[in-house]
Amino acid sequence: MTMKLYGYWRSSAAYRVRIALNLKQLSFENLPVHLIKNGGEQHSISYKALNPAELVPTFTDGDISLNQSLAIIEYLEEMYPEPALLPQDPAAKAKVRALALDIACDIHPLNNLRVLQYLSGTLALTDEAKTAWIQHWLHTGFNALEQRLRRSAGQYCFADTLTLADICLVPQVYNAQRFALDMTAYPIISAIHHHCQQLAAFALAAPEQQPDAQ
Predict the structure, then answer these.
(1) pLDDT tens digits along 32-87
(2) What is the spatial distance between Cα 141 and Cα 188, in angstroms, rounded to a whole number?
(3) What is the dihedral angle through the alpha carbons of 211, 102, 177, 202, rounded to the nearest 10 degrees?
(4) Whole-structure pTM value
């Protein structure tokens, strides 16, 4: 049966899964869930039955249904181990996971759509104040990440091997660029992002390349 990915073109989490699927050269059906139109299609009865958290992505493979981008990617890693996205050495694997979690757990949630909607809606922040919030937390996260990458990076986040950490990094830099973050202080992050963007798997996964891009 065809693997299916329910996502949104600009979702960082869905972007991660698209990159992983492309790197492993797996075919999948891309099913858009528009997070803005009609009050947000993720809140529909049909989608809530699939994912009660009302978030994207959701991934299905036959009878298996998964949420959480990193869990989906690790499932793909177990099922389709080549090319590997995690090192075999336990210590190296833990370091790569830590870098990925720095991004996916500490940076990304603070500029996620539902947080931004709460800031501008319930808290009635101006666009300027909302942008200041986004940029503050991006700088906080990127400052720490840049320091970590000084110790681990080569062409990629972990030496010269493409890993799960790079899959998380690229969508987060996309978000930073979208919100006009000054990347001057992050030369290592910027260099890794640029290098990854030269790869077809990343280019094809880019938000603007998705069928629901607007």
Answers:
(1) 999 999 899 999 999 999 999 999 999 999 999 999 999 999 999 999 999 999 99
(2) 14
(3) -40
(4) 0.96
Written as one letter, the residue type at 120 is S
Contact 103, 140 (CB under 8 A): no
CB 197 within 8 A of CB 170: yes
Which residue type is seen at 121? G
Count of C-beta atoms within a 10 Å radius of residue 62: 9
Q: What is the pLDDT of residues 100-143, one digit of tens each?
A: 999 999 999 999 899 999 999 999 999 999 999 999 999 999 99
Q: What is the CA radius of gyration of the chain?
A: 17
Given a contact cutoff of 8 angstroms between Cβ atoms, the answer to whether 42 and 67 are in contact is no
CB atoms inside a 10 Å sphere around CB 125? 16
Q: For residues 97 and 70, give the distance between their C-alpha atoms in angstroms, rounded to a whole number.
A: 9
Dihedrals phi, psi of 122, to nearest 5 degrees: -60, -45
Give me 82's structure tokens. 């080549």
Rounded to an integer, what is the distance from CA 178 to the centroid of its chain? 14
